[in-house]
Amino acid sequence: MLLIIKIKVIKSSLSETLNDHYLNNELELLYILIWMPLSLMS
Asked: For 32-42, what is each residue's pLDDT tens digit?
């Protein structure tokens, strides 16, 4: 649970810093790929 929150914080801060549409899409995809297995395991 804490890991998911950390990922969200990292993702949002990266998105704000870089503010690039393509990269945001890549981060979103990466986040989904990371979050899905974690949520299924818990």
From this structure: 888 888 888 87
Residue 31 has pLDDT above 80, yes or no: yes
Question: What is the reported pLDDT for 22?
Answer: 62
Alpha-carbon distance 3 to 6, whole Å?
5
What single-letter amino acid sits at 4?
I
* 8 A C-beta contact, residue 7 and residue 35: yes
The dihedral built from the CA positions of residue 20, 24, 25 and 26, taken in this order, carries a sign that is positive
What does the alpha-carbon distance between residue 7 and residue 10 come to, in Å, rounded to a whole number? 5
**Which residue blocks in 1-42 are alpha helix, DSSP H?**
2-18, 21-41
